[in-house]
Amino acid sequence: MTLRNFVKTQIAAALLGAAAVAAPVGALYALGVAQAPAAVQQAAPTVPAPATGNPNAVLPDFSTMVQKYGPAVVNISVLTKLPASYTPDSDDDDDDSGQGQNPYGNQNPFAPFFRGFPMQPPQQGPVHGEGSGFIVSSDGTILTNAHVVNGASEVTVRLTDRREFTAKVIGVDTRSDVAVIRIPAKNLPTVKIGDTRSLKVGEWVVAIGAPFGFENSVTAGIVSAKGRTLPDSGYVPFIQTDVPINPGNSGGPLFNMRGEVVGINSQIYTRSGGYQGVSFSIPIDVAMGVSQQLQAHGRVTRGKLGVQIQNVDQGLADSFGLPQPEGALVSSVEKGSAAERAGIEPGDVILKLNGDPVNQYSELPAVIAGLQPGTVVKLEVWRQHATREISVKLAEMEDRRTASNTENAQEGGKLGLAVRPLTSAEQRQANTQGGLLVERAKGPAASAGLQQGDIVLAANGAPVSSIAELRKAIEKSKSHIALLVQRGDARLFIPVRVG
Q: Would 303-396 and 417-497 be classified into the same CATH topology?
């Protein structure tokens, strides 16, 4: 049963259950009033309900916080110029996050909420959209979502005092969906950065943004859960809330009651295209780490262990002799990886990382990715009914290309393409061997019709599986290069002018 069908079934069951209970209770109440004999009717004894909370508690007042930090939240308008040969992809259903293949096809319930106001379907010519952001330094540095500004030809920032500035995109990281932009202004109001680790489930939180273009709108709710892992976002331990979030809120801040930013509003779970009670935010500590690297180096480096892992349920715990279900079960080890060199084997269960317990397998990728390549970590591993300690020197995760607005030959080259090799899992999903995934297309590549998500299989008839092979083929080409591209289930040759 798919996740979508599972959600449908559960919702239907809940609705049916509510109807089955509500109707009989209402009927019994009516019969009791109309038909009970007067002689039998007696007043029921009054029993006070037990106190379950603080009787002196009152609803929170967010007005002071909003007045103080609201001016640091900005509205972001973008203009994206689509190539003349652009045709909307049938799988492009409310997912412009640049996060790779969509495991739900065109019905992905996890959607970045950036569509702009008014809503415009993809079409030839420029496309307008709107999102949100927040100022983190008085010199004009702003954080937002990668899917808000990635690929935009124009980015305009509007402050609460109605001033507008053209922003420069400093860097974009699609893995974490974090982007840094900057406007030419000084002495700007800024937000206060908080600590996600101290955030508690059940705590009140506030979002400020521009849902449907309505600037500086405030919504509130509570933290529903922490450390959520979403499809294609395994390196971000999302904060789940019930704060009402809608298109245009993308990139806006999530505040705690102390007025500190604890997250960047990024995605929602939806079957309708709008808010349905579940929203997700990027933890601010993750976002600030990405921001620092983008500003310092223009790219983000992450540690890599080189294993595929899965959750440990009761059956697996019994099979491996674990006292209780915990940790991350290693299902495969990448050849030549840091894990293989350290001696990690399939069937190992990683229980601790640097002394900290791994309670859920989804916790491990985010922690490893947050460490720098070359870092030595100590893993406590369960193998053959006993624990052992293994030290691993982390490798560097393959660069999936960060994009900036600077002309960088390494990023775009003569074709204007930003590409990366496919992972083994992506190759299996696309049923290909080798190939390069298009992360961004501009210049000659965009004009020829190449799109984000295309897979470049060959150049001038020669298969390509590395950036070096593609670069070599480009250098040998004179005026055009013929790229064999896989788009969905179809393959086609696209001639691209060599700039």
A: yes
